[in-house]
Amino acid sequence: MNDGITSTGWTEFLNKIKAAKKALGDPETLWYRGHPNSEFYLLANLLRFKNGLEKEQQLFYSFQKFTDRILKRRESEWETLFEMQHYGVPTRLLDWTETFGIALFFAATYNQSHHPDKDAAVYLLNPIALNKISGINKVYRVPKDEASFAYTKIYWNQDPMAAAAPIAIEPIFFNDRMLAQRGMFTVHHDKIEPIEKQFPNAIKKVILPNAVIPAALEFLDLSNITRYSVFPDIAGIAGYLRGTSGLVPR
Q1: pLDDT at 56 over 90
Q2: Is the pLDDT of residue 165 over 50?
Q3: Cα separation of 83 and 185, whole Å?
Q4: Which residues contact 179 (CB under 8 A, 6 or more apart)?
């Protein structure tokens, strides 16, 4: 690593990740999410808008209307929702990953570009423990489980239940980014309180100190986790080339 202090800090950070995992019960299934600013809190994008829930149905149907000629029509409501999330339309989905390195990439890389003076953070989630809060003993696979877990029925009509907590779901990897990032989701209920405070038995937060960011970036470099490997498309290639070209600003 870069120096003794950074190396020690990196080791401490990894030890805290291990401790958080243990506190969650050392689950067989564990998801991660990286934030470039540790002051952020976990909340789906739609819920960050004052009138987000009021506009949810309008956004969904408008997206279907305008994209039908561009995108292959999706038979599943969940697939439409995944497309919305992919293209930046606010939804009640929150992205997670099965891969620690991917979460670290989002925490450390975007810290440097967006919040260079802040600590970053990595969250750990036990999806089974989270779903048990809602009386569910598994992670729904959608759209496979759509018959028993339908998006519009549950979240718009509260049929057969009103969601009382976020619910973890495992999507199909219908695009290259989801596959590369090993993407998973939590589907959020209507409450706007940060979920890490509401459900501490299922979610843990580990601070990545600003001084340790260089060691995290070195780890990512050694692991070949780059913008291109995380975003394996034209936009990812462009970002990768910008970052590795050696261009010097005037």
Answers
A1: yes
A2: yes
A3: 13
A4: 173
